[in-house]
Structure formats: C-alpha cells, structure tokens
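Lay summary

Proteins are chains of building blocks that fold into shapes. Our project writes down both the chain and a compact code for its shape. Here are two examples, one after the other.
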Amino acid sequence: MLLQTLREEVLEANLELVRRGLVLYTFGNVSGIDRGQGLVAIKPSGVPYEAMTPVDIVITDLEGKIVDGKLRPSSDLATHLELYKHFAHIGGVAHTHSEYATAWAQAETEIPCFGTTHADSFHGPVPVTGRLSEEQIAGDYELETGLAICRRFAEIDPDSIPAALVAGHGPFSWGTSATEAAHNSAILEYVARMASHTLALNPGTGPLARALHDKHFLRKHGSHAYYGQVKAQ
C-alpha cells in the first residue's frame, strides 16, 4: 500500500476530530503530505469515519490527480493543496465545522487573544478571510477558498498562527503533520469557545497585554522555548 504510514496517520488524525467532538457525520477532513514525494493523503469524500480504514485514504499529487486509491478524495482537496503550495513548512491540514470556531467564521470576525490559553498556540488573533465573490463561488470554489486563506496570510506567519476562519464557512488548521493539524483544530475550538464566553461575560474585554501574549507563545515556540522536556538528539 503506497504511503502506508502516512495513510495510517491521516486516518488517526481524522478519527481524532471525531473523538474531540469537532465533526458530525461526514463533516470535516484531514490530510497529510509527503514532501519528498510530493504526494498528499486525504480523507475520502462522504465516507463515515467509523467505516474508514487506511486503504480508503486517497493519495493524490499536488495537482489533485489521484495516484492511489479507489475512492474520490475530499471535496476540499483543492483547498488543502493550495495551503501546501503556499505554506512551505506545513505537513498536515485539517478542516472542521466545529461549533464555536464556525460561529466566529459565520460572524466574519477574527478571534481576539483574550488570555494566555490562546497565546500558548496562536501568536495573534485568529484571522478571518474576506468573502468570496459570486464569480469565485461559481468557479473553482475549493481552489478559491484556499487562495482566500493564502491572501489573508500574505503578511501573517502561518507557522505562528496555524489556523484561519473562512468567512461564512468554517475553520482550517494546519501543522507540521496531520496529527498536529488535528491537535490545532481542537485548540482552536477551545479558544473560540472561551472567547465567546469571555465576551458574553464582559463585551468590553480588551486583548491580552502584548508582553504576556509574547511570553506565553515564545516559551512554547521558537529557538528559546523552554516549555516541556528536552528531546533526545
């Protein structure tokens, strides 16, 4: 089976979305990429999570051509491919319609950083894309969705803010692997829920102080991070 290890990881990442309550029925998808071979493994379209096996995961090239697999890939494949082409360091992409993050996307409102939980994973507010035009929607919609995310990140580091809200649609997250992309989807939903509760309690809440925001992000990320254990060389 081509890319068996990647297929197994992508399947497990998709199942993690289910375990964390981020998807219903066949909503959502996760993919992973083998950069060396230029191949992507992605959830098949419309297949129930409980029925999937590694062999059901579809392998495509970066142009969307199926290389291995008997099923149709996720309808969001073109969006995933654009993110892989534009964000050089990512190894996995996840898309959900999780409740709170999707609500922020529907409100076309970025998620501000109100506290250190957000700052631990996102070095700034989680941005929202602009709306797609009628022509973009009628054309190659999934491709245009990916391009909208990439345009929004023209001046944002995708490694520091590994998620975006697509206006009127929902969240996409990414990471160094399919596993990390699913993890970031769960964290995104968690901070989206807390941000909603924060504004319900105090609509006038302002963003976290920049110094504290930076401290919490940089103690976990970057060359001077000190959170967690040192990995063996």
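And here is the second example, written the same way.
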Amino acid sequence: MDEHVSNFIRLVERAYLSDRTTTRAMDMGKVMQLFTQDVTSAVEFSEPFGYIDANADKYGVIAALESMQLGFAIQALLPSLLAVVTSRFFKPFMPKPTDPSGVGHLLGMIQSRVAERYGPDKKRRADALQAFVDSGLSREEVEAEAMVHLLGGSDTTATALRNTIFFIATNPVAYRRVQAEIDAAVAAGNVTRPVLTDAQAKALPYLQATIKEALRMWPPIMGIMPKVSESKDDIICGNKIPRGTWVAWSPMAIMKNKEVFGGDADVFEPRRWLDSDATRLREMEATQGLVFMSGTRWECLGRKLAYVEMGKMLFEVSPFLSFLSVCRVGWIGKGKSDTDQMMITALLSVRFFHRQPH
C-alpha cells in the first residue's frame, strides 16, 4: 500500500505540479481510479497492473466498466433480466479473453495469472489469488472471484476517495479541522514518512470521522443490493419474509435517517461521530456499517482494505486543498456514470509536497 501511495505522489510531482508559467490541472476522478486499480491488482496478484506509472487507463478496463454500470444497476432492479443476459443466447456478445481491450482483456489477464498457480511448475505467492487457490475452489471459481475483486474493489474505493475529498474541499470548517489535525500530527512527529502507517491514520479521530461521514453521505454503491435467505423464513422489521424472497434496501434513505443520525442528517458533519454518546454511536455505526454490510454474512471482503487506502491517501491529499488555485466542483454532463459525476479539478502547488506551513 505504501508503495502505491508513494507512486501517486511521484505521479503528481511528475505530471501535475504547476509553476509560474504553466498550470497543470489534475483530474482527481481519473487519478484516484488509477490508484485503486493498482492497489487492488497488487493485493490480488502480488504486482500492480501499472496504471499509475502509465498515468492512463492502459487496457480500457475503466472506460468499459463505466459504460456497463447502467446495465449493472438495471439488472439489480430486475433480477429476471440477469437470467436473460447470462443465457446462451447472449454468450456471443459477452466480453472474451481474446479481446484487445476492455473487460474481456482483463479476463484474459486474470486467466493467465490463475494458470500460473496450477500445474507442475505452479507458482505460490502471498496474495489474495493464492488464498482462493488454497481454499479448494475450482479453477473457474478462482477466476470468477478474482474478477469480482478487481471490479468491485477498485471503483467503489475510488468513488469513496473522490467523495470524501469533495466534502472536505467544499466545507471550510471540516477542512480547517482535518488540516489542523494533520499539521499537529506531523509537527509532533506522530507519523512516519514518506507514508504513515495504518495505525497512525486510525489515531487521527477527525480524519476517521470524515471518512465515516463521507461514506454515509454518499455510499459508493447506490444500487439496492438485494439479499436472499434460501434456507429459512426470516423476520425483518417485524415482517415475516418467506425464504427465497429478495430483500433490498435504499442506501440514500437509510443513511439520511434523522432518527439515527440526528436532525442534521442531510448535512456533512464529521463531529457527530466524535460528540455522540455511546448508545447513539453504536446505532450510527451499525447503520453506517451497511455500506460494507458489516456484521452480516454478506460483509464486503474489501472493507478493511478500503479503510486503509482511504486513511493513507486522504492524509497525503488533504493538505494540498489549502493551496488550491482553482477548484471546479459539480456534476459532469449527462450520460456519465455516478462514479464520474463527482469530481474536483485542482491546480497544485509545489509547497504541498514539501509540507510547508500554510
């Protein structure tokens, strides 16, 4: 993780630092996506796909995924449609490992890396892929799990990072508080350089509160994400739910529940995570935890990884907000995916990277 955060910093130094004669705008939406793609592929296969070094969507995977998101959302709303799309009639139109770019090309890269873990000359590595291989899954199941991790673990975290930066950058009070906490930690020597540890990031309460609050305000996945109990009936909110029934929830409605989060639930206010009593805090954390389905058998396997990524990256990125020369915030045009619609384009100052007082 530290290696990829450092790569991000080197990319900004190489491509996006402005001087007196030239301004270089950084598309935060794009660069955060490159960062999380590298982190997820490194965790999965012990080596990144190299997006940050190339400063580009090398294989067209990101563009392909964004073009497919509307279809994914519709399938979540209409489960019967999934049966049609996955039928043999649609197979000729699905991505193929031999495709030169896009999701098909990604599938081809996954298959080649999975193949290395089997056979007489198989390789063993300490990564997520090896855990799947050792768990007894079939080779096809290992490929499917790896694909799910790469697709689900990168775009969502990139969205969470972009949204958190958006809320910090557009809230002067929140910005000053998180900046003061970071400045104090650096001045006291409480963080290691060039990248702080996960424990050091977790020791910054206001930074952690901004992460929780941003995830609450704008959950990275806005689909209804249905769940089903196949084996037995259940009781949910006092209602008997027969087995086999799909049950879903609305993230935006749940996360803005004023009975749980207070009368200002529509407002970005990280202090609520620091000022609430123990009883209220437990209720808020249980509700906000639904972003990752925490505490359930459907809990996201990437939850801990996402929090580590966000803590380290936001510590590095947040200080430069005080040096913004231009900050364009808003919705991108029609036809863009939700993950593209929230972004900041900023001009950076050299002083950020030298940690000079502002």
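What can we say about the second shape? The beta strands are 25-27, 227-228, 234-236, 239-241, 246-247, 327-330, 343-347.
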